[in-house]
Design a protein that fits this description.
Layout (H helix, E strand, L loop, with lengths): L1 H24 L9 E2 L21 E4 L3 E3 L5 E5 L10 E5 L10 H13 L3 E6 L5 H17 L11 E6 L1 H10 L23 E4 L18 E6 L7 H13 L4 E6 L18 H10 L4
């Protein structure tokens, strides 16, 4: 009996240790379950549109970087009722349209927003084609708006944003608001696709030809580092100046250092303060 008990304890400890290791390697085990944003297969996800035969979702870096997305979804980090502001940000991780840095520029950011009373909603978008990525972004805004009441969100305070390519995607979708959703025609696609604000962090700012920036463009919060060699600070300044000329509410923060891809910040710079600044800025937009 004693030997049997000890054997049970050993097996239990091994299982517990294995789960702990797996959880550390795969943050998704600790995160909300993915929710598909399309009914049935996402339009444009059939094999003829894939960049390579057998294209499929897989970890490029376990627990950090995903690639091969064909079935877009969201993960919803809702704040506690006691701190809920009703605001929500759909977060598009970066990755140069090659992959998604879903932990550093997705889950971690959503968890920090959640603590501050802002719903963080991570969008796992298709990155093999920029046009289908824009479709996913439009659909995500509409989908979140369709469940705003259920999730205790203010449907007039649903924003979108992202990092690097995810910021580029957010700017592009905001510049194509008049685009008619010909890919599906369900009740969700009848809702507004206009984000109420943008949160773009070191975004690519060379937009697609279809994107239009005019006086109807959503308010934008923009952050970049002066030493970023990928997203040039001067380009974000040009974008900010353009928005100001159109009298679009906008705010720009240029940090002295941080490079490209600082996420929530690094010990080497004060660029991690952007989230506090964003929180203060978005309060001024509350409707």
């Amino acid at each position: 009996m004693y030997n049997l008990l000890m054997r049970f304890v050993q097996v239990w400890l091994v299982c517990l240790f294995s789960f702990a290791v797996l959880s550390a390697e795969s943050p998704s085990l600790q995160n909300p379950e993915p929710i598909r944003i399309w009914k049935g297969p996402a339009p444009g996800s059939d094999a003829q549109h894939w960049p390579t035969p057998g294209y499929h979702e897989e970890w490029e870096r376990p627990g950090e970087v995903l690639t091969g997305i064909t079935d877009p979804s969201i993960q919803v980090f809702l704040p506690d009722a006691a701190v809920n502001t009703g605001q929500a940000v759909i977060i598009c991780p970066g990755g140069g349209y090659r992959n998604l840095w879903i932990n550093k520029e997705g889950w971690k950011v959503a968890a920090e927003l959640q603590k501050r009373g802002i719903a963080g909603i991570v969008l796992k978008y298709r990155h093999y084609d920029r046009n289908v990525a824009v479709q996913d972004a439009h659909r995500a805004v509409r989908y979140v708006r369709s469940r705003a009441r259920e999730w205790h969100l203010n449907e007039k305070m649903i924003g979108i944003g992202g990092f690097s390519a995810g910021g580029h995607l957010s700017l592009n979708m905001a510049g194509q608001l008049r685009r008619t959703p010909t890919w599906t025609s369900d009740e969700i696609d009848q809702l507004s696709n206009r984000p109420d604000f943008l949160m773009v962090i070191y975004p690519g700012v060379r937009l697609l030809a279809e994107a239009v920036i005019d006086a109807s463009f959503p308010p934008a919060f923009i952050t970049v580092a002066a030493d970023d060699q990928t997203t040039k600070a001067v380009d974000t300044i040009d974008l900010f100046s353009r928005l100001q000329a159109l009298q679009v509410k906008s705010e720009l923060h240029v940090y002295q250092a941080g490079g490209h891809g600082f996420g929530l910040g690094t010990p080497e710079c004060n660029c991690g303060s952007w989230l506090d600044l964003f929180q203060g800025w978005v309060k001024t937009l509350t409707k």
